[in-house]
Each structure stands twice: as C-alpha cells, then as structure tokens.
Design brief:
This protein is an alpha+beta fold. It has 5 helices and 15 strands. The strands form 2 sheets. Strands 8, 9, 10, 11, 12, 13, 14 and 15 form an 8-stranded antiparallel β-sheet that branches. A 7-stranded mixed β-sheet has the order 2-1-3-5-4-6-7, with helices on both faces. Helix 1 runs parallel beside helix 4. The longest helix is centred in the middle third of the chain and has 15 residues. The N and C termini lie far apart (52 Å). The relative contact order is 0.13.
C-alpha cells in the first residue's frame, strides 16, 4: 500500500516550487499519494502554518508523512528535523512549525536530518530545503527507509505553543491566533473551558474595546451582518460575522489579548 504525503507551505501556486517538491517525492516513490494540505499560508507565517498542520493531523491515517515548509530561517543555523508520533511522520524546519501537531500524540521521537544519503542534493541549496531535504526525506520514508537512519536523535525540537490560554476564577485569558479565508478570527481558547458552563448565552468575550455577548452554535443563530462567537470545528472559540468577514468588520490583529468571562 502506497504512503500518503501531505504538503503544507507558504509557497503559493504561482511559482513552480510546489510542483518541484512533488517531482522529488514522485521520483523516489511513483505510487505515493500526495495531498496538498495548504499552500496559501501567509509568507513566513510560521504560526499560521502550525495551526493548519495541527488542525489537519487527525484526518489522516497512521503512516502518513506530513511535510511542512514555512521557513524564514532557511539556510541558517536552524536544524532540519523529522518527528515520528502517533504512527505519523512530520518533516520540516525546526522552528516550531511541527510542535503543536506532534503534541496531539502522547509520545514522539525526533531526529536531526543530517544524513546526506537521503538528500536530493549532496550540497543542498541555501534557499530551497523544501526540495533538497524535506521532499527527498519524505520520498525515502515512503519507500520504507527506517526513521532512525535519517539522522541523529534529538530530544529538544523547538516548541511553539499556540494553545496556552489560562483560567483565573471565571475569566479565561487567551489571545487571537489568526483569521481564516472567510475572515473568521480564531482564538486560542479551547472549548474545554466551557464544559461546566450552564449558559453559554451569558458568556462575554472581550477583545480590545469590543465586547461580544453570548456563544452561539452557528452563524444562523444571528441576523445577517451581525457578529457571532461560536466554537469552531477544531474546538476553539472563534469570532465571525454572518454573511460577512469579522476581520474586515473589526480592527483585530493576531496576538491581541482576549478575555472570555464566564457567568
């Protein structure tokens, strides 16, 4: 059975970069199934890439190989790594991009990709590790190369924690993460904080000078053009506007502190 390889990048589709990476993978395993997870991550936006990868991992079966490239530090001292967790493999730069996806599983092991036998080029480009290292490693993994042969074991992959909201009494302190294609604004507040809340309608979300009252089930619970706070399909509190864009309606930016006040 052929492997599945997913690709997540900030390359866009105007240039040939994504196609070249696919070519490298296919040249090593012509039977592999390649899934384009997302190539419209904002340029050098590691956090957005990390969120996309984290949100998708549960949809894929064990054995999947996830290649993620959002890499402002390409060619620098930052490591190239592979991580194995939950029967899945993750390949990319060691800049925190892989961390939250890996944390979905209870255990992981990681290696620095320092074995040039599995590179596309013995002298990788200083600006295209997606082709010369990450895609090539994915192709070799798909062919059955043992994980431990890829490089030197490491215990300290770089962390980038997205979901670190905290509760103090009846106030959840979090922050805005990003906005999606529809202009919905994602917070890092998990629905787990709402499990004991008897009336979601009495909750208040404070963001800057904006106060949003009540947590709804879906967009149609409010009138067209009105803001709505709800739990998104990945279990996070999110701000939207029915038939509109919250990002365009409200001047909110990533990392802005938010408070969710419980009744």
């Amino acid at each position: 059975m052929s492997s599945i390889v997913t690709l997540t990048t900030d390359f866009g589709l105007r240039d040939a970069y994504v196609g070249i990476m696919k070519g490298v993978v296919l040249s090593l395993d012509a039977d592999v199934q390649i899934v384009d997870l997302c190539h419209e991550i904002g340029a050098q936006d590691v956090r957005q890439g990390a969120y996309a990868l984290w949100s998708a991992v549960d949809a894929f079966p064990p054995g999947t190989i996830h290649v993620a490239v959002v890499d402002p530090g390409v060619g620098s001292e930052r490591r190239s790594i592979a991580v194995q967790a939950g029967g899945q493999r993750f390949v990319g730069p060691d800049n925190g991009l892989l961390w939250e996806a890996v944390q979905r599983f209870s255990h992981f092991r990681a290696v620095e990709l320092d074995n040039p036998d599995f590179f596309h080029s013995m002298e990788p480009s200083a600006t295209f590790h997606g082709r010369d290292i990450f895609a090539s490693v994915a192709g070799h993994l798909s062919r059955g190369v043992p994980f431990e042969e890829l490089g030197t074991p490491i215990e300290d992959p770089r962390k980038m924690v997205l979901f670190n909201a905290e509760q103090k009494d009846k106030v959840i302190h979090g922050r805005l993460l990003l906005s999606d294609h529809f202009g919905n604004i994602v917070t890092n507040i998990s629905q787990r904080f709402l499990r004991e809340v008897s009336s979601l309608e009495k909750c208040e979300l404070l963001v800057g000078h904006q106060i949003f009252r009540g947590i709804k089930r879906t967009f149609s619970d409010v009138e067209a053009g009105e803001p709505v706070v709800y739990v998104n399909s990945f279990g996070l509190v999110e701000i939207g506007v029915r038939n509109g864009s919250a990002q365009e309606t409200f001047p909110l930016t990533p990392d802005l502190p938010v408070e969710l006040r419980l009744p």
